[in-house]
Every structure is written in C-alpha cells, then in structure tokens.
Amino acid sequence: MRLLGMNSVVTAAGSGIGKAIALGFAQHGAKVVCADIDRSAAEQTAQTIQAAGGEAIHVEVDVANKGQVENLFSVAIDAFHHIDILLSGPGISTTRNFLDLPEDEWDRVMDVSLKGMYLTGQIAARHMVKQGGGSIINISSICDEVAQAGYPHYIAAKGGIKMLTKAMALDLVSKNIRVNALAPGAVETATGFWHKEEFSNLREKVRSRIPMGRPARPEEMVGAAIFLASKEESSYVTGISLPVDGGYLSY
C-alpha cells in the first residue's frame, strides 16, 4: 500500500494508460477521482475500483475547458477534502505531414495535450499550495526526446509538456510540490496507434527499434507512476521526464 491515505485525480482515466494508473493507484491505497471526456468510461473505471473495495468517483471533463477543469477539482475537493496527486493524462493525435497539417488539427492537439496539462496542473497546484504540497505527474512520451515523421503537432505538444514540467517544477518546488513527467514508449492500447491500419508503417518501424522487441502494456506504466506519486520513494525527484520505453531511447 504505497499510496495509503492519499487522494488522487487521474485525467484520461477511462481507458489505456490513464485507466491502468487509476486502478494501480487504488490498489496501492489511494482514493481516486476518475476523470475523462467520456463519462461512461470514467464511471466504469470508478466502478471497477469500487468493486475491488477501493474508493473512487467519476467526473466528466474536457481538460481544454477551464470551467470544466475548475469543476473537476471542486468535485474532487468536496468528495475527498484534499488532493495529493494529479496524474495528467490526456493526449490525442492524427497522422499528418507538416505540409498538409490543418490549423484546426494543430489547435485541437495543442488544446488537449498541452493546454490541458497547463490548466489541470495550475488548478491542482493552487489547491496543493493551500494544503502544503503534493505531486503532479504529466504523461508525456519518448517523443519529447525523439521525433517521428508525420506527427508534427503531437511531437511539438510532447516536447512542450517536457519543458512545461521542468518550468512547473522550478516554480512550485518552494511550495513542496513535485512535478515530473512519465514518458511512455510504444504502448499497446485498444484505441492507440498499435491497432490502427493508418499507423502500420510506423508500428513496424517502432517495433524494430525496441530492444525488448514489443510494445508495453498499459499496466507497465503503473510502477513508475506510483514511484513518482509516492512521498517516500521519490521525495527528492522533481523536474524529470522518466522514460518507460523498453530501451527505445538506448537504441
């Protein structure tokens, strides 16, 4: 029970990495606010936690909408009184060559993937300041370190998340708030690129570069997230982007 007595907000908790981490936080003793733009998916994650004996609620939220993010934390504070951990997870993409990338696609990816991190992080941090500290974990990607052709908006957003994380860490360290990024490599999720035909060429290219020879399961992100969330295990860790990538960046 590495997070016993702690309260968490997990965005993008309805599926994939966010869902796996929400379930993992609960298994290690944390109460969880499961937030997602898909209310039904968030509710299902919360119900899974409750069925296993944990405490969880669900909230529908578009992280690019400030009013909805403010409501998320209002509901979270009303339910659990304080928030110790924010896991900020949303990220979206399409496949586009830079020359063909429409402005509206650029804007939507930036709104969800980068602006969403700013809004959730800022509002969470303001609550954490009042209570004396906390831990913020932003889900980035190994694409905050290496680029792939065909995803200029996604790559730019992930690079922005890495530097936003560092800037947040420096601004918030005096408030006893640690801020780190978790940078997954290729992860096999039901809705991710690993199962989409349009990404078939990239999929095989990525697989060939993973020393472990396979993509990760969402559950393989949980240990790193718990480490970064724990006050005991990562008390001296802030401002980093932690790769969990099967050795991809060592290739």
Question: Would you give an account of this structure?
Answer:
This protein has a seven-stranded parallel β-sheet, sandwiched between helices. The radius of gyration is 17 Å and the shape is globular. It has one domain: Rossmann fold, CATH 3.40.50. By secondary structure, the chain is of the alpha/beta class. Helix 1 crosses helix 7. Strand 1, helix 1 and strand 2 form a beta-alpha-beta unit.
Portion of residues in helices?
Answer: 40-55%
Query: Low-confidence runs (pLDDT<50, min 5 residues)?
Result: none
Please indicate the percent range of residues in DSSP E strands (runs of 2 or more): 15-25%
Mind describing the biggest β-sheet?
A: 7 strands, parallel
Main sheet: strand order: 3-2-1-4-5-6-7
- The number of E-state strands comes to 7
What general outline do the C-alpha atoms trace?
globular
CATH architecture: 3-Layer(aba) Sandwich
The helix-and-strand class reads: alpha/beta
The fold-level CATH name is Rossmann fold
The CATH class, by name, is Alpha Beta
Main traits of this protein?
251 residues; alpha/beta; 7-stranded parallel sheet
Question: Any chance you could write out the topology, listing elements then pairs?
Answer:
Blueprint: E1 7-11, H1 16-27, E2 31-36, H2 39-51, E3 56-60, H3 66-80, E4 85-88, H4 103-131, E5 134-139, H5 152-172, E6 177-184, H6 200-209, H7 222-229, E7 241-244
Parallel strand pairs: 1-2, 1-4, 2-3, 4-5, 5-6, 6-7
Helix pairs in contact: 1-2, 1-7, 3-4, 4-5
